[in-house]
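Comment thread on ticket #2218

A.B. wrote:
> Attaching the input chain for the structure job we discussed in standup.
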Amino acid sequence: MREVDVLGVRVEMPTNHPIVLLRERDGGRYLPIWIGAPEAAAITYAQQGVVPPRPMTHDLMRDMLAVLGHTLTEVRIVALKDSVFHAALIIDGTTEVGARASDAIALALRTDAKVYVDPSVLDEAAIVVSSEEDDEVERFKEFLDHVSAEDFDKPEDPDATSET
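C.D. wrote:
> Ran it. Output below, let me know if you need it in another format.
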């Protein structure tokens, strides 16, 4: 397993689909994972330290683990099947529970659990960023510093026209 950092969420253009971008900690590969808008908001909330007035699903999961005396040890992105990323929650170091990658990442961010990716998944789906593209990654990081979770809650109006 290869440890990754969660760089953040962005909206992929022109499709307007959110992605979460992971970066291999000891390597130059980046793993984009397409996710839904609610999951994008959940990940962004966690990265920004937003505490909602009522717990979101991932907050509830974190709180239930704590009340029951369990710890999320790590999260693993274990497979890519039919363009869908599969993950596992490792609880107390031994118990494995299947999860969607986006949910696993959102929960890891709330519990400070490490995130790992199977090398075969990185080999299949990761991209290598050249030094010129590194500048784009830096701009993406700057974007992440200014994006808010509410940016992913806005419904798209397909009938809207742009003004020129």
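A.B. wrote:
> Thanks. Noting for the ticket: The longest helix spans residues 131-146.
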